[in-house]
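job 3f2a | input accepted
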Amino acid sequence: MNKILVVDDDVSVLNYLQVFFLQVNKYEVRCLSESGRAYQTIDEFHPDLLILDIDMPDVTGIDILTYLFERNARPEVLVLSGVEDIKLAVRAMKLGAYDYLTKPIDTDKLLITIDRALERRNLKTEISSLRQRLEAAGEAGPFARVVSRSPQMLEIFSRVEVVAPTDNAVLLWGESGTGKELLARALHQLSKRRDKPFVAVNAGVFAAELFASEFFGHAKGAFTGAVSDKAGFLEKSNGGTLFLDEIGELALPIQVKLLRVLQEGEYTQVGSTENRRVDVRVITATNKDLREEIERGNFRSDLFYRLNVCAIYVPPLRDRDDDIAFLAQYFVEKYGRLHNKPITGVSEDVHTLLGRYRFPGNVRELENIVNSAVLLEKSSELTRQSLPPYVVDATAKVKDHPFPPGERASALAERTVADVEREHIERVLRYTDGNRTAASRILGISRVTLISKIKQYKLEI
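job 3f2a | predicted structure (461 res):
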C-alpha cells in the first residue's frame, strides 16, 4: 500500500478523512494535527503522498513545502485550503505541490487526484531506478539508451538478445524516431562482433552516385577530385557490423551491388576492377513498407529476402501507451538537470495533451518537445504554455478523453494518414519559419526525406 500522511490542525477534518480512507481501504494513512511534528513524522513514516493544510499555526503548509523542496526524495503533495487563493496556489505549485484543493473536500475529486499524484511518483521512482541501472551499466550496456516500460518494447529487447549472437541479417522496420538505430547498436554489442567496428549510415542522405563512392570506396583517379584511394563504409566496417538506415531510399543500381556483397562477400571500389573480400554483418532499417516498394518497382525482391532473414517491428510511440507519460517524465528530469532548471514533473494538462498527440516523429520528437519546453518553462512542472504551438494546435480537434491501448492512431480516423502527415509537416515548417533542417530534426526524419515529402504534398512554405 502507498503511504499517505495528512497534516491539518482541524481535528474534524482529520477525523472525516480518517473514516473516509478506512472505507476506501487502499492506502496506509496516518493523520497529524500538530504541524510542529510534521518534519519528524515525515522522516519516520516516509509517506508517498502528503495531504497538507496550508494555514496552520507554528509550522505552516508553506514551511513544510519549503522543507520538502530542498530534498531529493520527497513525497507528492496535495495542498488543502479553506479559501481559494490564486497567489497561494501558485506559490505552492512552485514549491512542488502536485495540486491545490479547497475545502469542503470533494472526495471523488480527492481520490482521482491522489491516484494521479501517486502515478507520477511511481514514474519518478521507476526512472530513478532506471537511472541507477544505466549508471551501473555505463555506456557499454546494450540497452543503455533505449528507455521504455512498454511490454511491446520489452518483448523486442528479448528478441534482440536471441537474434544478436547469430550472423543473420536483421531488418528493423517502423516509423522514424522509434529507436531503430539504438536497437541496431544493441544487436552489435550483444554479438560476437562487439569488439569490431560498428558503422552507421543513413542511406537516405546520399545521391546514388555519391553513395556508391561512400559505400564501396573509390580508387585514385576514379573521377575528378579523387586524388587518392578512399576506404568506403564496407571496408571501415569489415569484421564488424554495418547499419544501413532508410534502406528503402537506396537506388536500384546500388541495390544490385549490395545484393552481391550479401551473396558473395565481395565488392568492387568505384574506378577499380579488383574484387575485394569483406566479412560484415548487415543490419538495415526502414520506415517504408518494402513489400509495397517491391510492387511499385522501387525495391528488389531478391535483396528484400536477403535483408529480411530476421525482421523486428518497432511500434510507434502512440501505440505504446505505457511509454508516453514515462518518457515525458524521464526527459523532463534529464533536461531539467542539463539546463539547471528546477522542474520536477509534468502537469496533468500537459499529460492530457501528450496523450492526444500522434507523435509523427515518435520518441525523438517527444524528446525534442520536452527539451525545448524545459528551456521555456518558469514553474516547477511542465505547463501548456511551454509547449511548441504546433503540438497544441495538432491536438485541438481530438476529443478530450483517454484512448484505449492502440487506438490513439484512430483518433483522427476520418482523415487519411497522408492528410495528417501533410498537415503536421505544414505546422512544423510554420513553427520553424520554413527552416527545413530544424523541421526535419523535430519530425525525426532526414532533410532529404523532408524535401521529398514537401514535393510529394506540393507544400509552398
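job 3f2a | DSSP finds 19 helices and 14 strands in the chain.
job 3f2a | closed
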